Amino acid sequence: MKINSLFVAVFVMLAGTVTLSAQDAPAAKPSDATPWLEGVTIGEHPTDISPVLPMKISLENGEAVPASLSEDVPLTVVAQTAIFDDAPPATYNGMEIPNATWRRNPAISWFFIDWEKNRNYPASSTVEMAVNQMVITPLQPTGKGAITCHAGRKMRYDSAEAGKSKGTFANSSVAADVQVLDITPPVCGLEIATEDGRSATFWVAENPPNKYPLPKMADVYLSGSLANTADPAEIITVAGLELGPNMVVTPEQAAITVAADAVLKIKANGEDNYKLDTAKLKFGICAGAGGEPTPISEVNATEVKLAGLKLPENPHFYVDASDVAGNRQVLYVPLKIKK
Amino acid sequence: MRTINRFWLLAAFCALVTVCPVTAQDTGTATADETKKEEVKIPESTDMTLGVKDSPVTLPENFRGKEAEEGDLQWLEDVGVLMQENSNLYNVDAAAIAEAAKFSSEPNITWEVKKEDNSGNLETESTDNTNKATNPCNITDPGYYQVHNGGARQVSTAGGAEEDTDAVGQPSDETNKDDEGSAEGETKTVTAQQRIGIEVHDCTSPDVWVAFQEGAGTVDMAASEAELKETMAGKIVETKGRPFSVKTQDYETASYLFIDEGQDEERNRIPWEKTARLSIAGTLFNERGAPKFESGVLTAKIDQADYRNHVNVVGGEEKNLKGVYVRRNVPFIFAAMSTDNGNKRATTGLVTAAIETADGKEIDKDGASYMFRVPNYPRSQYPDEPDYFFTTNATDKDGNVTTVRMPLYVVETSAAFEGGKNN
Description:
The complex is a heterodimer. Helices cover 7% and strands 41% of the residues of chain A. Chain A has one helix at residues 2-24, and strands at 55-59, 68-70, 75-81, 91-92, 95-96, 101-102, 107-114, 119-122, 133-136, 142-158, 165-181, 189-194, 199-206, 217-223, 236-242, 247-248, 256-259, 263-269, 282-287, 303-305, 315-322, 328-338. In chain A, strands 2, 6, 7, 8, 10 and 11 form a 6-stranded mixed sheet that branches. Chain A has a 6-stranded antiparallel sheet with strand order 15-14-13-12-18-20, with no helix packed on it. Chain A is elongated. The N and C termini of chain A lie far apart (114 Å). By secondary structure, chain B is α+β, with helices and mostly antiparallel strands. Helices cover 16% and strands 35% of the residues of chain B. In chain B, the strands form 4 sheets. In chain B, strands 1, 3, 5, 6, 7, 9 and 10 form a 7-stranded mixed sheet that branches. In chain B, strands 15, 16, 17, 19, 20 and 21 form a 6-stranded mixed sheet that branches. Chain B starts with a helix and ends with a helix. The interface between A and B is large, with 81 and 74 residues.
């Protein structure tokens, strides 16, 4: 009896402790290690029933979400969860939920988390689709990402107090970890200046952005007195080039015009939508345009004395850039010698 | 040499004897670890709490007749509330998520507000990725809302190493596993979420437009009234209650009285500091018939118990709004409409409007329009003629009210109105 009594007492103490923990909902203790909890005084666990229901997300055909996605390529995903069932669960974690009924429609939110930046992007679709579906189009490459779906639904159930009921929420969420592959070449350009203070800049912008299917397209912009003597502030736009390894601006479209004895200061402006492979960045002056560049000046020289070069008939500035995924951009802009 | 060889042999044997148990023990430990790792199952999601940390007003659950047991919070529009949430995902270590698990990222925290539309669907109003577990929330339009917090964090089992993510361009054939357990050394995203239902109550009086239009000659006043109402309905929705113009020339065919929540900085004030802007435009709001556009701010009066507001416009000799001046023997019509922030001013609402005597007796139309044959203005010259008042009352579905009561003067056509207009 004594042993039994002791056992019961211990059990009651334990049970009491558990109940107390749940009810008291110990306040969070923010620290330097958890700055996101600053000001939070609420406990980690709901004091009333709030079921967390399992969820699965998959492709439309039921297949698992691939671990690798491509940027700009839409993906239709589907969530399966008891949130969409006719009635809430009757039990949760061994507790009965008497006479549980849904009170409102389900609320669903889809997100894409870029863990490398710890940023979360909401997904939304203008296309009419089922409530548990969403089209996800990742727009930026990332090595660590996650598609997440959060669904919740208001429910009501009979409370322990006779004749009373309670409102609460059933919750369901899950993540599919993915990486997003970079399929966009870099968008690099050059800044060119001469000793007399004149200069020109040309740069590239993807247009339309996030185009799919490939190829990616881009516009090339030029400005400065070496590109436009009459109006250095005006920006010349060469539209509709295929963004890739063969971007050729023709002399009829635009050119950088310098004196035959000019000393050029050249600086590359390297940009990529993910990570530029700086070791592969090359620029300078080359012969002709298109295909593999044929440099006639020292590669990546920041100062080029034209008088020291044997200029070919059709010289161009070039910038040859690759990103870490291997996407390559080579841009050629004509170099004209002032007569 | 032989002795030395024996020594080395002995030493090697001893070393083996020493090493072998260690190796055996290591193997044993590794096996146990592997078993342990296999048993570690990182859950897909965990629970979360969500609630109010600080609010300037705490309303009972049955506020304005709402059902208490529904469990929804009762808020007033335009009152900022500090929300807070918490989850095991935000701890220093991941022990509460899974044994031997560790966090491999900071948490990602997103606050979202959804509003229930007329079909009962919950549509996103705002999304805010703050990565903070507290968040100020200010809902500026009435309705049923859900505030949602979604949390996520990367959790690794032992051995879950940081991956080299430089070469994001090499596709993988892997897919996301269906099983709930995590493989050895895997890093996965664990989620948590919670929602809370909120009834946001309307504390803003409805916007009201009143237009007066005179007829002349053989104008079909019934057709004019229909056209006037149609024009008003289109414009009041288009401008969300704001006057459609501040140019007097735009009010030559009809004179307008506008009562609305005001200009940008005047809108969405906290309920007990609500104001309204009264604008009058056209020729019928002064005795000389001079075209004008005037605008000023009124203070709304709030009921301290139920936080319903009342904007009451009273016209009179000593007021900015003296009254409306119509010409004797000239038929006129009026139309009144309202729009309310309860549905984001998307539709028009009914307004009761009337011309009545001082004792509240309503004046009827004379056919398709109103017309007074005897002047009563200036009042000193016509002391025996009755006082007339134009009144309107607009009430939104939450009981906020906008009322107007201003004198209606009938002026001697040639003596007052025409003369003033010619000036």
